[in-house]
Amino acid sequence: MSEPDNGIYDAMNKGLARATGDCVGFLNSDDVYASSSVLAQVAQAMAPENHLDAVFGDVVFFDAARPDRAVRRYRSNRFRPALLGWGWMPAHPALFLARRIFERVGNFRTDFHIAGDYEWIARAFGNGALRYQYLPEVLVRMQTGGISTGGWRSTWLLNREVMRACKLNGISTNWFKILSKYPAKLLEFIRP
What we know:
Number of strands: 6
Number of helices: 7
Shape: globular
Number of domains: 1
Radius of gyration: 16 Å
CATH class: Alpha Beta
Largest sheet: 6 strands, mixed
Oligomer: single chain
Distance between the termini: 34 Å
Helix content: 25-40%
Strand content: 15-25%
């Protein structure tokens, strides 16, 4: 389906309304699954007998000029609900959730421009009640240059919205906490 929308999160809400499966994930424009087995791995992890609400893995970023070379690896293994106030979240394109979680938590807020996924994750994971599993591998390959990797201006807006998301969801944070994640993020470029 292709039609006008009111931004990324409105488009995601439209996709969510059309989704029919028991497990939901979002693959954004220019993103691809890292292998043909990703969805089978997710389905196996999310099997009913495992009693999970979510699974997530890593994302590698690549430059369009050299799609075979990773320039950064976002490692989701650092994520814990207790670290939301520090700005940590699992990589959204590599996050898969049981449909019932969306039914309970609701849609993405459309008044966020760049961190609506973070706000939704703060709302869903903030109370620490979700059962989740980290899959220690790359699930998604993401092209650089998207809205979340668009330079310092995007980073500034992202962090302002992360602060707002924490406030809306009763998560204690401050600028020191949010900015303290960047030294660890620099390592993502050194060891992709």
